[in-house]
Amino acid sequence: MESTNQPAAADAQATAHRQPPLAYDARSELVLHVNGTPYTLTLDHRTTVLDALREHLGLTGAKKGCDHGQCGACTVLVDGRRANSCLLLAVAQDGRRITTIEGLAHGNDGADGERLHPLQEAFLERDALQCGYCTPGQICSAVGVLTEAADGFPSHVTPYTAASGAPMELTPDEIRERMSGNLCRCGAYPRIVEAVGDARDAGGAES
């Protein structure tokens, strides 16, 4: 009876699993419209929007904090909606409009774009920052909050009696709830809430 060398067969199978995969181009060409400018990039499929912005376009306003979508330091606007850029694969955003903190003031003053966005002005007026590391994400998220409330998107604390689809009143509780995904290790939360309230009163949802 022919014997089978099981250890040798197992070693051969393990060796086969260790072989490198067949060579293929794991990159794709895509276009990202960042702060109003189209960029054609060829990126590895694993590249996140955050890394594309920082490493390929030199836009370092969005910060890499936790890199797990938990701190909000990397928040940008994608087609007008806030998103954690560390969780978005760049190849999946082909053709999308991305606005970073660098682009909020762009074009806001017509000719030169030097005028700050109302939320940037409010954060300065209220001194709603300390080290500033989380501030770009805080401001981009706040722009999204103002837009979401104006478009009638409820939050966890929105009263059940609120009219469906109607603009939501941004009370301090609403602002705190909606901004809860953006962490500030310095603890500037009270001033942040005040700054968002100021921009709300000034009609600062424009981006």
Whole-Å distance between the termini?
Answer: 79 Å
CATH topology of the largest domain: DNA polymerase, domain 1
Quote the beta fraction.
Answer: 5-15%
Let me know the largest β-sheet. Answer: 5 strands, mixed
CATH architecture of the largest domain: Orthogonal Bundle
In the CATH scheme, the class of the largest domain would be Mainly Alpha
CATH superfamily of the largest domain: [2Fe-2S]-binding domain
Number of domains: 2
Number of helices: 6
Secondary structure class reads alpha+beta
Radius of gyration: 23 Å
Describe this structure in words.
The chain is an alpha+beta fold and 207 residues long. The chain has 2 domains: 27-103, Roll (Ubiquitin-like (UB roll)); 118-205, [2Fe-2S]-binding domain (DNA polymerase, domain 1). Helices cover 32% and strands 13% of the residues. The protein is built from 6 helices and 5 strands. Strands 2-1-5-3-4 form a 5-stranded mixed beta sheet, sandwiched between helices. Helix 3 (118-126) packs across helix 6. The radius of gyration is 23 Å and the shape is globular. GO terms for molecular function: 2 iron, 2 sulfur cluster binding; metal ion binding; oxidoreductase activity, acting on the aldehyde or oxo group of donors. Residues 28-104 form the 2Fe-2S ferredoxin-type domain.
